[in-house]
Amino acid sequence: MQEHLDALEKHMQQLQQAMRQAQMQRRQDRLKELRAELRRAQRSYDALFDQDGDAQPDAEDPASRPSRPPATQMPAREQVHQILTLLTVPAAPKLISSVHEALFTAPLPTTRMATLRRDEERSYRSAPGARPYYLCPALTSDHLSPARALLTISIWPLEDRIVGPLSARVHFLTSAVKLTEAIQRLTPDPQKMTLGARQLVRHYALNIPGALPADPQDRGAAPDLTLLREAAQQELAVHTDDDTHERREAAQRARHQLDEAGQLFGAPFQTTRRLRSVT
């Protein structure tokens, strides 16, 4: 949760700065848009605290602490939210399922995610802001339309919910870093990694230069999580700036061209065609 709080605090500061600039420039339409986005970010910020309850339990009385069900007993919606929070980037149902199984040794069938996007949008349009968060599609940087089979969380900054030409690789590398960190927290001894975790880590290592040991004889041993994380971070440094620039530009267009629902769930087909003709 701390990562999301930090991201939201930074996002709200940026919005406040942009509001001051818009006010100085007497751009009332832009000011109205920024104010609405700030209110939405503030609601999301408050909702993260509400998830843990308003009242703090007595630290000296363990019985007073609220219990949280294991991940495998949570609704699919919460399980998906948990994995996306860990990865911090848009992800496809197949990856979400694989990471869930690797960390919790329990399946999260992709079929349980098939209708989530439609259900979330339907819920939002019937009662906007009623939920602390919504599971949303990623938006394409060119047409601001829903990206196929990529899920995000509504409380993420808009630019983090947009995918550009380099985003697939950046997200792959980022998820590799986040996964290795999570496995090391849960299983400090690499020899005790689950089969699902080993398979997923090997998939990442095979697709990231320098992530496998130089000596082929060492590749049959437990995966080297530190080597994988460092290799992913090195390649990330090459692509991140260009990808971030592309997504930020698209986010600026989205704030001008789409309403609140559109910024979460993408431009409708008719709007997408109109935006194409304009751009």
Can you put this structure into words, describing what you see?
Strands 2-1-3 form a 3-stranded mixed beta sheet. The model is unreliable at 51-69 (pLDDT under 50). The longest helix has 33 residues, at 225-257. It is built from 10 helices and 3 strands, in the order αααααβββααααα. It has 279 residues and is mainly α.
User: Helix fraction?
Assistant: 55-70%
From the alpha carbons, calculate the radius of gyration and give it in angstroms.
Answer: 20 Å
Count of runs of 4 or more consecutive helical residues? 10
Low-confidence stretches: 51-69
Outline? globular
Mean pLDDT: 81
Distance between the ends: 38 Å
Provide the β-strand percentage band: 5-15%
Throw out a few tags for this protein:
279 residues, mainly alpha, 3-stranded mixed β-sheet, globular
A few lines on this structure:
With 279 residues, the chain is mainly alpha-helical. It is built from 10 helices and 3 strands, in the order H-H-H-H-H-E-E-E-H-H-H-H-H.
Layout of SSEs?
Blueprint: H1 2-24, H2 28-50, H3 76-87, H4 93-104, H5 116-126, E1 135-140, E2 146-153, E3 162-163, H6 167-186, H7 195-206, H8 225-257, H9 260-265, H10 269-278
Parallel strand pairs: 1-3
Antiparallel strand pairs: 1-2
